[in-house]
Amino acid sequence: MVEMTGPSATSGDWRRFYHLTRTLAVTDFKVRFYDSALGYLWTLMKPMLFFGVLYVVFSLIVRVGDGVEHYPAMLVSGIVLFFFFSEATAKGVTSVLDRENLVRKIHFPRMVIPLSGVLTNTFFLLLNLVAVFVFFAIDRVEVRLSWLQLPVLLALLFLFTIGVTMVLSVLYVPARDVKPIWEVLSQALFYFTPVLYPISLVADQNERLAQLAMCNPLAAIIQQSHHAMVDPDHPSAAAAIGGAPRLLIPLGILVGTFLFGLWLFNRMAPRIAEEL
Amino acid sequence: MTTPPARASETLIAENVSKTFRLPHEQVNSLKERALHPFRAKRMDPFVALDHVSFSVAGGEFFGIVGRNGSGKSTLLKCLAGIYGTDEGRILLRGRLATFIELGVGFNPDLTARDNVIINGIMLGLTPTEARGRYDAVMDFAELGEFEHLKLKNYSSGMYVRLAFATMIQVDADILLIDEVLAVGDVSFQQKCHEVLAEIRKRGRTILFVTHDMHTVEQLCDRAILLERGAPLELGDSNKVARRYDRLNFERKSDLKRKNEDDPRHGTGEAVVLDAWFEDEHGTRTATVERGRRCTARVLVELCEPAVDPALGFEFGSEHTPHLAITAEVAAGSFAAGERIELEAAMVMPFAPGRYTLSPFVRGADAQGSVMDRRDGWVPVTVIGTRGAGGLVDVPSEVRVRQMVVP
Lengths: 276, 407
Description:
The complex is a heterodimer of chains A (276) and B (407). Chain A has 276 residues and is mainly α. In chain A, 71% of the residues lie in helices and 1% in strands. In chain A, helix 3 runs antiparallel to helix 6 (112-138), helix 6 packs antiparallel against helix 7 (150-172) and helix 7 packs antiparallel against helix 11 (217-230). The relative contact order of chain A is 0.14. By secondary structure, chain B is an alpha+beta fold. Chain B is elongated, with a radius of gyration of 29 Å. Classes of the chains: A mainly alpha (276), B alpha+beta (407). Strand 1 (2-3) of chain A pairs antiparallel with strand 4 of chain B.
């Protein structure tokens, strides 16, 4: 006989974990893809409209983009990457609560919930990247070997996003304040990440401040994507932070967030069902 | 409390399962309250939902979990299902377990029946291949084949229930935990559910079933456990548990009404009825008697004046029939004032389930004798039970049936 262990983050066999995660992610994707007449277009429209606004403001009015190589390409790729993070975490905050009827009625590894949510957003990210490459073609961005860095950057971004989502989703159950707090934080994070301005603009005024900004894992990932994908004239993450060894700081924060999320989620998972 | 070691046939064992919830004593809801006391610690009151519950279920058994609202039966099921962790004790299982706390868990109204059936199957523990393989059987059972590409939100509620139930039974787990899902649907659907459950059981599956419908318990379950305030009150044969449950429910209500001193009382006052009550077969006072079971009615009388051959007795009445039956017996001899007489009437409760009253009296020897004291409707008694062929009264008779040879 086997002892029933009660609810937990990852209990049960891995095959079931995989099937559940995949099923939930694909279902969610399908529903969001087909739920309106234009379906996927809306998911694409959101970052693109945002891009349009930012492009008009920052290249025609404030003129941040003057003299920046391939400013539109930089802007659009940065927005798509950041949007993945902000959308996935915003949905992730309430994800455990949104799946309440499953949590209270079925025994399954709870980790499936944040993981499948981030996966759904990953599908949309991949689709949006197709649009980004179209932009690259229009903006005549050169195809380079360094594009191969993209999968690594995406993997790191995924890891960071899932880490943050685990923390937020499980904290939201007992403390609903997490949602508004995160909305503000996420907005602030956008402006401290070199998405709409090149990091060199900050470095010109205060190099320390630029290096400090690069400690943010999102900033490091997006800056490196500018360097590897858009134009080599954009400083690499290592250059922007002042030396490759210093990259251990954002990497440490990234891995630390992930491990903390894993630990916290594991710790709180058994009681989720009764505290909802 | 110790539990015997697992026998080969046992499929599920619960040992001293206990569960305590922490309920917030004070809920901070409004922004103002929160602003005034931002860091006030929430006081948590412990609430014992399950208190050392132990039982074991054999393979192929149909086991009922019964109790009144809030008795902990759903909590127990959730602990068995692994949805809640237990604070104490352990739960041992043999084989695959499937839980049905609600029909159609994880159903998404925006997807077609096909997608939903497969997703639900995966949720309940099937692999995607298995779930797809069983899809046709599900649609056949639900008789919804022609609507398979319709989105679920366009289904009628009846179709929804049929689909959900069909999906549920496709999961051939070894142990099924079912929480009153059968309470939905119309009578014919419930009939179908019962047939299916009987069928599943025939295939050797073990079923644990939460309900407060005693009719279902007696009809389907082999054994059952009765919970009250989280503690096991009765465990064993399902009929026994069902009767205990009935008694538990009725006693609460009758206790309050017992012996209302304002009830009409009349008589000459030469004697007074001091007390009257029912006893069950173990000699314990009770206000609830089961139909067809031995019980004893007692009437205690004290004489105020000397009397010769007084008669003691009681009259049964119900709401619709005030003078249902009278029992009386003469206490032969002469008695002095202050002496007490007790009447004891052992009987097999003949009446149909319902509420009755007993009016004890003491009077002169013959039926026309003057009434010395009578208390109308003084002792309420509730008859329960499911035995008996029907009708208002079981006539005591010796019944024989034999086959006749046709010349």
